[in-house]
Write a structure and sequence with these properties.
By secondary structure, the chain is mostly beta strands. Helices cover 9% and strands 46% of the residues. A 5-stranded mixed sheet has the order 10-17-16-12-14, with no helix packed on it. Strands 20, 21, 23, 24 and 25 form a 5-stranded antiparallel sheet that branches. Strands 28, 29, 31, 32 and 33 form a 5-stranded antiparallel sheet that branches.
């Protein structure tokens, strides 16, 4: 019986101990307070969150009433409470105090937050502690009174039409704040407004305008600083710029260089990015001309043809000029990599000699004729004719000056030409560049004298025909006033063949002779072969001769 009573007593005692232990475990308390980090004054209406550690960790060694030092969090992130679950929330009273009751023993985290202050986090090991509770004291730091932005960045991207974006500035502090914008970026065209007063709890929109023409290729980055009373906030600005490059050009040799003018030649080798909007030439009397230091800039209309040219005038005679091709796009001005030089110089006129008319060898008279196609540069000051019995006459031989100017045909009747002799005539014109001569015309008499053969021979064929026609044409021919012209004999015809180059004007074919009884002889001037023709109706060439003493 005694044993039963004893066992029952021990059982009741165990139950009582277990109940007391459970009461201890569930009656843990955290009593705390929050003060200003700088002044030490209590801070009221602070949000206090209590979190219980659910992760069974042995990595931490906390002592009773132990608290981590002040960390100074701006924001409490989820990762800071990764192994904790929310137990409850409260706010501090006017004296900055707070309390959590009916807690079980374990590891806790306290989070304190308030607008205008930097959040704080403290880890606490909670034990029963004989009913005294765990006491802790936390500090919270007031944030500086500054104007902030509602975003970290604005991105204009690559859309060329997107040149304006905005962001908001916010005053979440405890006083009205003066603010101003600071930026130093070439491609940010405007930020408006740029200064102002932002009242507590208010926002204001800031508009940013960019100039895409000034962007570099690829992503461009700049920072806009919003500066206020106790500090500043920043917002990153991004914009994607088109990759740009200057055009590339070549300058080619100047052409048609004259006394006062020239033709400039160039080419756009690469259009540039973006494509050029203007092209042309710059030239000067000094090397490496530019738009700023040139004598003149010549603009050439843009076209799909990459090569281009232009004529320039009013240059100085004898002056050396330097020229470069140029092109402009939004990136700037591009020039050819090297200069082309040229020196102005006088250019000869252009003249030609026309067939002589009204020719009379017996009297030595004729009308000489010429034509000016180009007056030269500078324009010629003298024109006329030169002639001689020797080829290529010059102004040092016989010269006939003909007054006049400009282009066109001119002529002169001359009465002192060589009589009955071959002579040569050329037109001419003179300017500062020198003497320009026209083509040479050889003027031969209608006949030539072969003294050894005692023959006078006409220098031109009378034509072609049968033998009867040949006889008639010779007998009726009148040259140099003579009427006793005739067909040559076969022997005389061979003399003509042997002197054919001297006489001139022969064709490569058969010529009639007067020799023959039942048939007629002729000579082939292709090879000098004598032929006998039994028919008078054969067609041969005709050349007349006459006998002289």
């Amino acid at each position: 019986m005694k044993k039963i009573i004893c066992a029952l007593f021990l059982c009741l005692l165990a139950v009582a101990c277990t109940k007391e232990s459970e009461e201890f475990e569930k009656n843990c308390t955290i009593v705390g307070s929050v003060s200003d980090y700088v002044t030490g004054e209590p801070v009221s209406v602070v949000n206090v969150g209590l979190y219980y550690e659910t992760y069974d960790s042995v990595l931490y060694d906390y002592s009773y009433n132990a608290a981590y030092e002040y960390y100074g969090y701006d924001t409490i992130y989820d990762k800071d409470l990764e192994w904790y679950d929310l137990v409850g929330r409260t706010i501090t009273g006017s004296d900055g105090s707070f309390k959590f009751d009916n807690l079980t023993e374990g590891e806790y985290a306290l989070v304190i937050e308030k607008d205008g202050y930097r959040a704080n986090l403290e880890y606490i090991n909670v034990r029963y502690n004989n009913g005294q509770g765990v006491r802790t004291h936390l500090l919270i730091e007031r944030l500086p009174a500054i104007v902030t932005t509602d975003r970290k960045e604005i991105d204009f991207g690559s859309d060329k039409s997107n040149n304006t974006l905005s962001f908001n500035i916010v005053n979440s502090s405890y006083e009205d704040l003066e603010w101003s914008i600071e930026e130093n970026c070439e491609w940010i065209k405007e930020v408006k407004p740029s200064t102002g007063l932002l009242r507590y709890g208010k926002t204001e929109t800031i508009v940013v305008v960019i100039d895409r023409e000034k962007l570099e290729g690829g992503y461009n980055h700049s920072v806009i600083v919003v500066r206020s009373s106790n500090g500043s906030s920043e917002i990153d600005v991004y914009a994607y710029g088109e990759y740009v490059s200057l055009p590339t050009l070549e300058t080619y040799d100047a052409t048609n260089v004259k006394a006062y003018s020239a033709t400039l030649n160039g080419e756009i080798v690469n259009l540039g990015t973006p494509e050029y909007t203007e092209r042309g030439f710059v030239y000067s009397t000094t090397a490496t001309p530019t738009i700023e230091n040139c004598i003149a800039k010549v603009t050439i209309p843009k076209s799909v043809v990459k090569k281009y040219s232009c004529d320039i005038k009013n240059l100085t005679l004898g002056q050396t000029y330097y020229v470069r091709a140029y092109a402009i796009n939004s990136r700037g001005v591009a020039y050819s990599s090297y200069d082309v030089t040229f020196k102005t110089a006088a250019t000869l006129p252009s003249v030609s000699t026309i067939e002589v008319t009204d020719l009379d060898f017996a009297t030595g008279t004729a009308t000489l004729r010429g034509q000016v196609q180009n007056v030269g540069e500078p324009e010629y000051t003298e024109r006329g004719f030169v002639y001689s019995t020797m080829p290529e006459p010059t102004i040092d031989d016989n010269k006939i000056v003909k007054s006049g100017k400009g282009t066109g045909i001119f002529s002169s009747y001359v009465t002192e030409l060589p009589k009955n002799k071959t002579f040569y005539v050329r037109s001419y014109a003179i300017n500062e560049a020198g003497v320009a001569y026209g083509n040479e015309i050889t003027v031969k008499p209608d006949f030539i004298v072969l003294s050894a053969a005692k023959l006078m021979v006409q220098t031109k064929d009378l034509g072609k025909g049968n033998r009867e026609t040949a006889m008639s044409m010779c007998n009726n021919s009148i040259v140099a006033g003579y009427t006793d012209w005739r067909l040559p004999t076969i022997d005389e015809l061979m003399v003509l063949y042997n002197n054919r180059d001297k006489i001139g004007g022969f064709a490569k074919g058969r010529y009639w002779s007067s020799s023959g009884s039942y048939g007629y002889y002729c000579v082939d001037f292709y090879d000098g072969k004598k032929d006998y023709i039994d028919s008078g109706y054969t067609i041969c060439y005709i050349r007349a001769v006459r006998s002289i003493q």
